[in-house]
Specification:
Layout: H1 6-9, H2 13-30, H3 37-44, H4 48-55, H5 58-83, H6 88-105, H7 107-118, H8 125-149, H9 159-178, H10 193-208
Amino acid sequence: MSRVQPTFDNLPEEKRDRVLQEATREFADHGYEQASINRMVKRLGIAKGSLFKYFGNKKGLFEYLFGQALAEFKRPLKAIRDTSGKDFFQRIENSFLASAAFIDSHPHLYSIYLKMLFNEHFPMRDHFLGEIRGAHAKYLRQLVQNGIESGQLRPELDVDETVFILHSVLDRFLQNHAVPSLDKGIEPEKQRLKDKARAMTDFLRHGLGNTSS
């Protein structure tokens, strides 16, 4: 991944944040191939050579940005895993809400993800999507295994299949949250985010829950 130079880490936090905010905006607005270092440095008011000194090239900048974004996305999920009790379905509902809150707070990051998801020519697409899905699968697998062991989920569930279903439902839920027009004509009557998350969770509960416990 990115070999960011110590010179960037040694910058004041405010300057580091501004560089990453402008980079995120540029990749979100223009995608990877059309993103321009020239536009970034013009908005930042710094020399072009500074970004190359920090990150080496555009690829290095994007890799660093991606690593930071992935760490930010994982943080609230780790908190859910560690502090929200042992109820499997409450954790899943909290995951819906926390992930939607992340998108609301980082719309440009999610825009980059959507460009990556729907553009098969996005550079290093398989690698980056693999990193995202691998981290998400690891999180969900632990929840599913705990749910089976505690008797909250049906004991005959295949863990990998269940993880795939949960990831797919959550991913699609977030796409609907960020881009409602994707579901124009098929979305049920408009609901609050919390009500949508509860409805999705209840649907999963009926399919995955252990009714014999």
